[in-house]
Amino acid sequence: MTDIIDKAAMALSAGLMLLGTVGLGIVEILAGAPYSPVPITNEAGDVVATPLISPQIRTGIVLAGIAVLGLYAAYKIVTPLAEDAKAGHETVAD
Fold first, then answer.
1. Interior angle at CA 57, CA 71 and CA 19, nearest 5
2. Which of 35, 39, 42, 68 could be disulfide-bonded to 50 (CB atoms 3.0-4.6 Å)?
């Protein structure tokens, strides 16, 4: 059971972080110029170009991946190891 949870947590967190950085970066490149994370203005202050995907959305996806890793780490700390569960507690009798 732990093996499935390990693989699922690693796949989900890696997928979210790669989607937030590489995946949406490729989408921005395919959308065309400008490659700026903030709206571009002209000298008059009018917005002439905006990014296709907001930087807040990309950051949120990456942070969700990091949060999954944090939850996975907490799970691993709380769950006992397999050899600890089998051994039990032994007391020496006099």
1. 65
2. 39
Residue 39: cis peptide before it, omega within 30 degrees of 0: no
Q: Does the pTM of the predicted model rise above 0.90?
A: no
CA distance 37 to 28: 10
- In the block, tokens 């732990």 appear at 2
Residue 74's alpha-carbon distances to 4, 10, 77, in angstroms, are 16, 14, 5
Count CA atoms closer than 13 A to 48's CA, side-chain side: 9
Q: Which residues of 57-88 are buried (b: 16+ CB within 10 A; e: fewer)?
A: ebeebbeebeebbeebeeeeeeeeeeeeeeee
* Cα dihedral value 63, 69, 75, 80, nearest 10: -160
Please write the tens of the pLDDT for every residue from 18-55.
Answer: 999 999 999 988 988 777 777 888 889 888 888 888 88
Q: Are 61 and 16 in contact (CB under 8 A)?
A: yes
